[in-house]
């Protein structure tokens, strides 16, 4: 299967002699080859871990580096790994402690508002994913 026009590609991903210095693919571009390159790039970057959206950051307390998370789906336990993903945030962390109403808890369920100390800035409305693998 061939594409009929020029396809823009992201700089630095593809190292193939068929690509020219203008960050464009040639006119006759093999789609299967492109998909294989994208999949290998994604696997190299470690972005292939299965995740499930479980909530969002409702409030960020910057002075104490705590994210107030509203759980919308599933449960969260101490030891689980979560992924914060937003417009400028993208980091993973393992839950070592969490609180509900300033009281330590070991598990939280959908509908709970929890506080979690984070190693990096999370921002309001960032999505929170549970890393399942």
Provide mean pLDDT, rounded: 80
**Low-confidence runs of at least 5 consecutive residues:** 1-6, 10-14
Spell out the CATH superfamily of the largest domain: Translation factors
CATH class of the largest domain: Mainly Beta
Describe this structure in words.
By secondary structure, the chain is mostly beta strands. The chain is 11% helix and 37% strand. Strands 5-4-10-1-2-9 form a six-stranded antiparallel β-sheet, with no helix packed on it. A two-stranded antiparallel ribbon has the order 3-8. Strand 4 (81-85) and strand 5 (90-94) form a beta hairpin. The longest helix is centred in the first third of the chain and has 14 residues, at 31-44. The chain starts with 30 loop residues before the first helix and ends with a strand.
């Amino acid at each position: 299967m061939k594409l009929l026009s020029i396809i823009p590609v992201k700089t630095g991903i593809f190292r193939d002699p068929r690509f020219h210095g203008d960050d464009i693919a040639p006119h006759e571009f093999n789609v299967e080859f492109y998909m294989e390159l994208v999949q290998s790039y994604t696997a190299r970057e470690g972005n292939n871990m299965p995740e499930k959206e479980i909530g969002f950051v409702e409030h960020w307390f910057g002075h104490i580096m705590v994210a107030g998370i509203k759980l919308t789906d599933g449960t969260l336990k101490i030891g689980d790994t979560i992924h914060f993903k937003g417009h400028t945030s993208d980091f993973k962390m393992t839950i070592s402690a969490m609180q509900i109403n300033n009281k330590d808890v070991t598990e939280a369920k959908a509908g709970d508002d929890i506080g979690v100390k984070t190693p990096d800035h999370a921002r309001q409305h960032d999505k929170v994913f549970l890393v399942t693998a």
